[in-house]
Specification:
The chain is an all-alpha fold and about 650 residues long. It is built from 32 helices and no strands.
């Protein structure tokens, strides 16, 4: 009874959170405990020990301190360190690749008892409750064995949502994105646009605040689909290293484009295992700038403006921006306009001149220039140079957003949500904020996950794919499901566990993520869910539900699903036998994949025609007025006469 009351209370709290929308969220940050400098220093100092070659000694020392420390906050930091270590969040994969989420959960749960606002511990606890309830603790596992699965699930779900809610209130972007996705899809909570838009807005706000105008280079490993790479036997990580090797070779031989590429790689960091190095980036940009390349001049100016690798010097930055602008670089023109607008580097503030420069750069479709013009029209200027106009601001923000400017997309979301310059629309605002999360949070997580995967740290890769999957990344959902399906990154089967039970546990996890991906219109995921129902992998066999999944995938133009539907209608599996629908889906499979589906579809059609013909004859049908048995005797007699005639002819020829 006590457990049921506990479950009821947790569900009520969870319901109130989602029913109150963003109002509760606005009050929660007040209880967040900021870490003081002493605790931060303690944490980072011990992290360095845990990622060193002496990590085993450090781990033992921190474990002992977690048990004996009298200061509750230092004790909590010990548990946070241990939680991060066992969850595989520390950068020591080259030393220890295991992930022990159950152990990590125990430590995380003890962190926010002393420091209630530490969002990472709350996020990890919520993540474990929602996506790994079997690991929560041994007591719940025992209750599950005693047939109380429903009781356990009913408790873990609201606890997971509440922990994520508190983490989101503490400005955890991952928690905000995960809760936004849950609310957007209506998983385990009421489907609510106002709640989703508030969560996604807060996550997008954090991202937009850190968004900078810096050169970047495209990283292809953020879109790797593991099953495709596995089947081809290739490695995107190797390809990335080959590109970097090529750029470095060309750069060292004086190629300007390659020098700029190498400067960008070192400025960005974490590409092909190269760490961020401002001094090396400055060196390559400086080499490229010797020929007055406008891109190199612009990037050097940024280095001086931000103080990256050099002493900060705004005046020097302005000089370089002006040189690049004269050579037709619109991004440099934009930044020069910012300097005039704000009086940077000793320049006298000049709104009119800044406005002219912004308009010149915007005319060349420079997104940051359009962004700044949008801001000017949104607020207006004190001197009256620009009159306040939401309609004009919206127009410029839209131009900037068309080129992927995150701040412009965020501003459009805020304007749309509040009805500035256009009628208010929750769904339209949600699409803007969700776009920011999808394009900024997901790639970062996917890159981290794939790097761990390429290094052979499969457990660390899997949990990172699950982090991204929980926020709605389709690629991550498919990759996590595939890894569970292939038993990559999963724990080895315990000696006491049956092979069938171990496989079913993996298939259940794979099914979970395939289902989520299927909800996002992934044809491959829908096909896999259909297969799981058809074969009974991790779930009871259900051919009728397999048909439903195949039909949805076929409607999304998947040839394998169309063939499967044809087969099931052909033989009456999960649906009544229907020759016409079977033919329709076989033909559709050939239309969608002429090369791959032609032979199996045509063979199946031959069997279908033969079966139809036999059924027709067995049902008393006639051909040329003759019953099937009479016709068969005539055919056999004719064949016998032809054979005898041919034999006689051959004998006569020999004579």
């Amino acid at each position: 009874k006590k457990r049921k009351m506990h479950t009821l209370l947790v569900w009520v709290c969870c319901y109130l959170y989602f029913a109150l929308g963003g109002h509760l969220t606005e009050t929660l940050p007040e209880i967040k405990s900021e870490l003081d400098a002493k605790l931060e220093d303690y944490y980072h100092r011990h992290v360095l020990e845990l990622i060193s070659s002496e990590w085993q000694v450090a781990l033992k020392k921190i474990n002992q301190q977690a048990q004996t420390e009298a200061d509750p906050k230092l004790k909590a930091m010990c548990h946070l360190l241990l939680g991060d270590f066992y969850a595989g969040l520390l950068d020591n994969g080259h030393l220890r690749s295991d992930v022990e989420l159950a152990t990590a959960f125990v430590h995380y749960s003890q962190v926010f008892e002393a420091i209630p606002g530490l969002e990472r511990a709350q996020y990890m606890s919520g993540f474990t409750y929602l996506y790994h309830p079997e690991l929560v603790n041994k007591k719940q596992q025992q209750e599950q064995e005693q047939g109380q699965e429903q009781e356990q699930d009913s408790l873990n779900t609201p606890l997971g949502l509440l922990n994520l809610a508190f983490a989101a209130a503490g400005n955890s972007t991952l928690a905000q994105a995960a809760l936004g996705y849950v609310s957007f899809q209506g998983y385990n909570s009421p489907k609510s646009c106002p709640k989703s838009v508030e969560l996604y807005r807060r996550a997008a706000s954090v991202i937009a605040q850190s968004y900078q105008l810096l050169p970047t280079i495209e990283v292809g490993i953020s879109s790797v689909v593991l099953r495709e790479e596995y089947s081809l036997g290739t490695s995107s990580m190797d390809a990335e290293k080959d590109y970097v090797f090529y750029y470095q070779y060309q750069a060292d031989n004086g190629d300007t484009d390659s020098q700029i590429a190498m400067g960008t790689i070192f400025l960005q960091g974490d590409i092909a295992d190269l760490k961020q190095d401002y001094h090396t980036a400055f060196y390559y940009f400086n080499q490229a700038a010797k020929d007055e390349d406008p891109r190199a001049l612009e990037y050097l100016a940024y280095m001086y403006l931000k103080g990256y690798g050099v002493t900060q010097a705004e005046a020097t930055a302005n000089t370089l921006f002006e040189r690049a602008s004269r050579k037709g670089n619109p991004r440099a023109t934009t930044q020069l306009a910012v300097s005039y607008l704000n009086g940077l580097g000793g320049l006298k503030p000049d709104v009119k001149h800044a406005l002219q420069l912004f308009e010149t750069a915007a005319g060349e479709k420079e997104s940051w220039a359009s962004l700044h013009l949008g801001r000017l029209y949104f607020d207006g200027t004190e001197g009256g140079e620009v009159q306040k106009s939401y309609a004009q601001a919206r127009t410029y923000f839209q131009k900037s957003a068309q080129h992927g400017n995150i701040i412009a997309i965020y501003n459009l979301g805020v304007m749309t949500l509040n009805g500035y310059g256009a009628p208010a629309s929750c769904s339209a605002a949600l699409s803007y904020f969700k776009n920011i999360v999808d394009t900024q949070v997901h790639p970062k997580l996917l890159i981290e996950a794939y790097k761990e995967y390429s290094r052979g740290n499969f457990e660390r890769a899997l949990i990172r794919y699950e982090f991204a999957a929980s926020t709605g990344s389709l690629i991550a959902q498919e990759n996590a499901a595939w890894m569970y399906e292939m038993s990559i990154g999963t724990k080895q089967k315990p000696e006491h566990e049956q092979e069938h039970d171990y496989a079913n546990a993996r298939y259940e996890k794979a099914m979970h993520w395939y289902s989520k991906a299927g909800d996002q219109s992934s044809t491959y995921a829908r096909l896999q869910v259909g297969d799981y129902f058809y074969y009974g992998l991790g779930i009871p066999k259900d051919e009728a539900r397999a048909v439903q999944q195949y039909r949805t995938a076929a409607e999304l133009r998947d040839p394998q699903a169309a063939f499967n539907l044809g087969y099931m209608y052909h033989w009456g599996i999960g649906v009544p036998s229907d020759e016409h629908l079977a033919k329709r889906y076989y033909d559709l499979a050939v239309t969608l994949a002429p090369d791959e589906a032609y032979i199996p579809a045509k063979m199946s059609l031959c069997l279908l025609y033969l079966g139809t013909f036999i059924t027709y004859l067995q049902g008393g049908g006639t051909i040329l007025g003759l019953l099937w048995d009479t016709l068969l005797i005539i055919i056999l007699t004719t064949l016998l006469l032809i054979t005898m005639s041919l034999r006689y002819f051959v004998l006569q020829q020999n004579v």
